[in-house]
Amino acid sequence: MRAERRERRWLYLPPLVFLLLVALAPAARLLLESGARFSVLSDAYLRWRLLWSLGQAALTCVLGTLIGVPVAWVLARTAFPGRALVLRVLMLPFVMPTLVAGIGVLAVFGPHGLFGADLQDTPWLLLYGNLFYNLPLIIRGAHDGFAALPASRLAAARTLGATRLGAFWRVEWPAMLPALGASLCLVFLFCFSGFGLALLLGGVRYATVEVEIYSLVAYELNLADASALALMALTLSGVCVLIYAWFERRLAHPAPVDPLPPAPPRHWQERVALALALGALFFFGGLPLAAVAWRAASAGAAWRVLFEPDTLAALGNTARFSAMTLVLATVLGVMHAMAGRARVWMRAAAFLPYVISPVCMAFGLLLLYPGLSASLGLLIAAYTLLAYPFVAKGIGSALDRMPPTMVQAARTLGASPPRVLWRVTLPLLRPALRRGMAFAAASAVGEFAVTLFLSRPEWTTLTTLIYRHLGRPGAANLDQALVLASLLMGFALLAFLLIEWPSHARRESGG
Amino acid sequence: MLEIIDIHKRYGDRVAACGLSLTLAAGEVVALLGPSGCGKSTLLKLIAGLEAPDAGIVRFDGADLARVSPDARGFALMFQDFALFPHLDVLGNVMFGLRERRVAREEARTRACAMLAELGLDGYQARRVWTLSGGEAQRVALARALVTRPRLLLLDEPFSSLDAHLRQGLQQDFRRLLGKQGIPALLVTHDRAEAFAMADRVALLCDGRIQQCATPAALLAAPATPWVARFIGYENLLSDAVVPERAFRLGAGQAPARVEDVVPLAEGMRVRVETALGRFVLTLSAREVAACGGQLHPGGEIGVGIDRDALLRFDRG
């Protein structure tokens, strides 16, 4: 027993020390630097930044709910060919680097956009980009909520005299609310602490706090105001994550139910609803990506950018950083998950990287370790911090799903502990490991904010190279950025295929 | 063969075993019967070596098992949820224990296939385990446990997740197979019909202690304590004895009893009466109902006596 406990300690010490050094200490350093000054709010300009950051996140939540809940309902209740595929592809934006999304949005509604409508310097550009990322999240959450409703409950409501609409409001909507609430918390958090999209799409007026922190640090060297803003951002994110955790706990133990099976559309109204839902999905989730592919395909001469020495060097850097990150993230993530099995606070610690936005973390790291600025170790540590929760949480929930009797059965059948690990535990965790690693790889390949903060000029990655091309004037540069973005999109697609590749060992996908 | 001597085990405030002792003879099937949460499953895990007792000895063939790890004990534990490995097919599951015991692949395959055929699962070798029905999964789990020829088979509520009609057929299959292989088995259950149908002896477990351990017939003939009597189904108890149904005498010549409640049955009636000795529940045949005239309604009066010689006295020794 005691030996087991000692074993555990070796498992949970490395992730904890890592979190302490790379997440908690920089956050504490930010707190010291800011001195918790709220006087920055008397500055009308900074006040507008903060209010707009909150406002655009809230607006995204409202718009996302108005569009997403009906779409989710149609997806949950209507059977149509390709339904399973649509539900899977729904999560594709989640692995897309912000730069691809940003360029996609610009290609649709920016200057020289697909439809000729230029929405630059309006709030709509950023909101559209936010919805690209977050509408699928809302739809997924609401869909799972609708799908977890037992058919008998709905039938009971109908036999008790509720109309179809009445049954929706009084039975389906309340049952789905916790799932929606959890997604909305994440959406608010991602929108509020997002950096890349706001930098690309916000323009001068509609950029967010994160962008402001970046420019205060990088261009104005105004560390005091930047740290005060960062502290506020941290606090708000922390509140979001707490609410999210509360919702998640309510969703933690779903009872197995017989859900209402989706039925094929019967009337023309239902067909129209289905068409509208799929149309909305494509407009928000597919159009920016399609625009990147389309514009890149017709870019012609710009494809030569792929063979420029700058590009090759950037590709090399991206590959190098991602590989190092992947190794570290996998090791730390598996340790964290194994150690976190019985410890609630250890699980909560895996959310820490969500609370600390990439910009705040990079800023804190710069303040805390000035001697290490622009060092490879610091850069990779920051990359790893952003990537490893994917592995930790994937493995963690796979461990939760694994009944303890699996290991016990193997033991009584004659397998020693190492053999159990090799023949039972690892094979059962393999799909989760593959998924977690693919997510981690996608996050490393698409990393942008931290790279901008912490890297040296000669460490340009694919994302920062795209950003550099975007910053230069002229259609040729835009085309080159599009070509590079389509390459990045290809990597993300590859990661997505690895994540979603069906695994035979999964019961859920068996049906 | 198996000897459990004065085992103690507690989890925080919950006592799972408190001075528990039990022995199993060669080839014997013993059922461990008790209410939910009385520590039945814990005892199986202690025997299998998945948990360590706080105190006490587990011995097999005279050898102390305290320092023997679960994989070296040569027992097979069949779990309530069957615990089939989802990453292996049916054949892979059945071969698992053989491969762990270093049986060559070809031989393991032959033996696993033979065991599957024995259980009527021929042709299931390549099936994925989550496509199996409850009864099929249960037989695969049994095949996986038996194919290694364990020295002892431990069964944790093996039939609880199955339908009633499926359960009876499988219980007979189990008895036949266990008898044929001569493997001693310890079966945990909360269902007394199952315990009586499957086991040579039944051990009643309550509060971490064996209350009584005897053959089903001996248990029914002489329950040791009021708790045991109630748990195996006797409804009418005096302070020192059980009143079996056959001890009641009905008729006008007996002491008067007041009818409190009646429930009609398909054949006859259940009647609750209050007598000078206490309240009893009687199950009357249709003929007895007719003999009672019109008195079988709440407030009515019938004659109820007790034959003292037919009482089953609790053995206080």
Helix content of chain A: over 70%
Helicity of chain B, as a percent range: 25-40%
SS strand fraction of chain A: under 5%
Most extensive chain interface and residues per partner: A-B, 24 and 32 residues
State the fourth-level CATH superfamily of the largest domain in chain A: MetI-like
Order of helices and strands of chain B: EEEHEEEHHHEHEHEEHHEEEEEHEE
Alpha-beta classification of chain B: alpha+beta
Biggest β-sheet strands, sense, barrel of chain B: 6 strands, mixed
| Sequence of strands across the biggest β-sheet of chain B | 6-7-8-3-9-10
Average of per-residue pLDDT values of chain B = 88
- Give the percentage of residues in beta strands of chain B: 25-35%
C-alpha termini separation of chain A: 40 Å
CATH homology-level superfamily of the largest domain in chain B = P-loop containing nucleotide triphosphate hydrolases
CATH C-level of the largest domain in chain A: Mainly Alpha
Give an overview in words.
- The complex is a heterodimer of chains A (511) and B (317).
- Chain A is an all-alpha fold.
- Chain A has two domains: 1-33 and 299-511, MetI-like (MetI-like fold); 37-282, MetI-like (MetI-like fold).
- Helix content of chain A is 76%, strand content 0%.
- Chain A has 22 helices and no strands.
- Chain A has helices spanning 2-34, 44-77, 83-89, 92-95, 98-109, 123-147, 151-159, 164-193, 196-201, 209-220, 223-250, 268-297, 309-339, 344-349, 352-355, 358-368, 376-401, 404-412, 417-445, 449-454, 462-471, 475-500.
- In chain A, α5 crosses α6 (123-147).
- Chain A is globular.
- The two termini of chain A are 40 Å apart.
- In chain A, 49% of the residues are buried.
- The model of chain A is unreliable at 505-511 (pLDDT under 50).
- Chain B has 317 residues and is of the alpha+beta class.
- Chain B has two domains: 2-227, 3-Layer(aba) Sandwich (Rossmann fold); 235-307, Nucleic acid-binding proteins (OB fold (Dihydrolipoamide Acetyltransferase, E2P)), CATH 2.40.50.140.
- Chain B is 28% helix and 30% strand.
- Chain B is built from nine helices and 17 strands.
- Chain B has helices at residues 40-48, 90-100, 105-118, 134-146, 164-181, 192-198, 216-221, 226-231, 286-291, and strands at residues 2-11, 14-24, 29-33, 55-60, 63-64, 75-78, 152-156, 185-189, 201-206, 209-214, 241-242, 248-250, 256-264, 269-275, 278-284, 301-306, 312-313.
- In chain B, the strands form four sheets. Chain B has a six-stranded mixed sheet with strand order 6-7-8-3-9-10, with helices on both faces. Chain B has a five-stranded antiparallel sheet with strand order 12-16-13-14-15.
- In chain B, α2 (90-100) packs parallel to α4.
- Chain B is elongated and about 80 Å long.
- Chain B starts with a strand and ends with a strand.
- The model of chain B has no long low-confidence stretch (mean pLDDT 88).
